[in-house]
Amino acid sequence: xxxxxxxxxxxxxxxxxxxxxxxxxxxxxxxxxxxxxxxxxxxxxxxxxxxxxxxxxxxxxxxxxxxxxxxxxxxxxxxxxxxxxxxxxxxxxxxxxxxxxxxxxxx
Length: 107
What we know:
- By secondary structure, the protein is α+β, with helices and mostly antiparallel strands.
- It is built from two helices and seven strands, in the order βββααββββ.
- It has helices at about 30-40, 50-65, and strands spanning about 15-20, 20-25, 30, 70, 80-85, 90-95, 105.
- Strands 3-5-6 form a three-stranded antiparallel beta sheet. The protein has a two-stranded antiparallel ribbon with strand order 1-2. Strands 4-7 form a two-stranded antiparallel sheet.
- The radius of gyration is 15 Å and the shape is globular.
- The two termini are about 15 Å apart.
């Protein structure tokens, strides 16, 4: 599935190894879980702009999966990856869905 996608809201697959099984994907700056934990530890509040960017990124990624006939089945903060603008964690530049290990083909 990932090898066939060029969707900006799903992690790009570059290759894989069969033994041991391993996927080679693009590298992102953080997961949503880590981002939220760091905000909480530092007493920060996520900006409305970042909230909307995350929500839209996840929605667009899931919409792409559904249009292609797949159901992700494991959306959680660990499987939402973020890139930051200029390494500034207050400025999210992209949002991508990863971990398609439990994906289900529904068509």
